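Hello,

Our lab assistant flagged a job as stuck in the queue for most of the afternoon. It eventually completed. Since we weren't sure the result was trustworthy after the delay, we are filing this so someone can double-check. Below is the sequence as submitted and the structure that was eventually returned. Let us know if re-running is recommended.
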Amino acid sequence: MKITVILLLLLATHASYAQDYSGIWRGVLTQEPGGCFPEYYIELQLEHDGGIINGTSYDYYDSSKFVKLQFSGRLNTSTKRMVIMENEVLRVQIPKDCVPCIKTYDLTWHMEGKNEMLLGTWTGKEMSRGLACPPGKITLSKVPKSAFKQEEVVQNDRLASIQKTLKPETRKVEIIQTLILDTSRIKLELYDNGQIDGDTISIYLNQKLILYRNGLTEKPITINLPVLPNKDYEMIMFAENLGTIPPNTALMVVTAGKKKYEIYLSSSEKKSAAIRFRYEKKE
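-- returned structure --
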């Protein structure tokens, strides 16, 4: 009886290990007639925490023609099925006569020999007009390395263009808190701290603009950040105005895995509040 129990536990442990969905998934995406290409490549840089999925996708014909997007989704660990929805276009480098398609994936995990696979279908809508894209099928394999260089800070094309037009302004930076995290996916929620008085802020992460001139209210501004392991990050809250009641104050809630932090930030025309954090990946 003991031997049977031990064997069952070993098998359960092996199954759990085999179904670690986080990682790089790469393969082929087909499209019915009417699309820009009948077949092209796709890469999902996927992180999962329980039933929650986040990550970055690349739809590409080759390394110089691609669309980069952020996605989120849900995972059913019992059925090994996941539904993934692309929700933000980060970069577009495709022919002008092609239109990016914002896609939803319906995928199921399979083991084929020694290869982990995600198989399924996809649907989508054109980025600009909202028309349905010709749907198709998708086949992905888990691979050890991305086909694209990983960026320290993910910045979309719009904010990159805005930052080029801004004149640098020197202000003292006050570090409020330093966090050591155990996850590569971080959620920031920013609220006005106190009376709603028209405070407007911009956010910089390692000198890159990731939020521009957003007003603080009782409803959160939510930013999902993918970060690289063993890299130092500095996030600065830059006051664009001081509202009617100076200084510009915010409550920032940081959610990292199962940990949550509440941090109070205060910025003015002479000083910007900042936090530092680092994701220390365990081997």
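-- support follow-up --
The delay was a queue issue, not a problem with the job. The result is valid. Residues 76 and 82 are 6 Å apart (CA to CA). Confidence is low (pLDDT under 50) at residues 4-18.
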